[in-house]
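Translate sequence into structure tokens.
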Amino acid sequence: MTIEFALVAGAGLMGHGIAQSLAATGRSVVLYEPDLGRATAGRDRIATNLERSVAKGRLTAEDRDALVARIEATDDLGRAAGVELVVEAVFEDIAVKTTLWAELDRRAPAGAIFASNTSSISIDTLAAAVAAPRRTHFAGMHFFSPVAVMPLIELIRGSATSDETETAIRALAADMGKQVIVSADRPGFIVNRILLPFLGESMRALEEGLGSADDIDTGAKVGLNHPMGPLELADFIGLDVCLGIMRVLHDGFDQAHFAPPRVLVELVEAGHLGQKTGRGFHTYPRG
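Result follows.
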């Protein structure tokens, strides 16, 4: 199964990074948002990222221009008609995702691979939005942020995902310079099943006054040799994203250590979502 033309639905932090990584392999990519301005902004962000690589001598200006030229920004979901791959990277909400997949099911070719970048939602739940014959081509393809840097893809097989689909995704990941791990279709999959309880316990330690946010993060960085402290990492991921994943885990397993800490809920309700808003467990300079 060859993949030369892909559509990425969602031009935000993850979507534009996935589009950039696909285009870097020489593939043509359509970057979709229902609002053309957001799709164009995603493409412009890719150009800005690549400009930094040119300035550092990692990429020639000609290669940058060629890569950006392979990415088309669009608000027309009908552009899915000729693709071999669709990667969905929209907001982590079941209703949003399933509505989009149902629309794509009506537009994409029958043999196209459907891959969701979901970080926690069941692949079978999402695949239920498409016709039964399509589900053999449906899988999870969970990238990590920043996509251009992080070398891992978590491949999640649904109950209907075929071996051929897994093989095609593995080949694509290899072309992108990514390592693949395969997870069963369980809440949070592998990485977030491990990570979120760690972040949650760090938040509970802060709630209890065990230490300051700086001390908790320094303890992980120096004592555990982590590159980033857990509260800093939560801010980087986005506290709204962390809260959403924790709720999926808690609903799925009904165990106390998966429950979202009070401090996280309060920060999200106050609009303090981490780095992207300038404040979370830490504060960040704007601009």
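Note: The mean pLDDT is 96.
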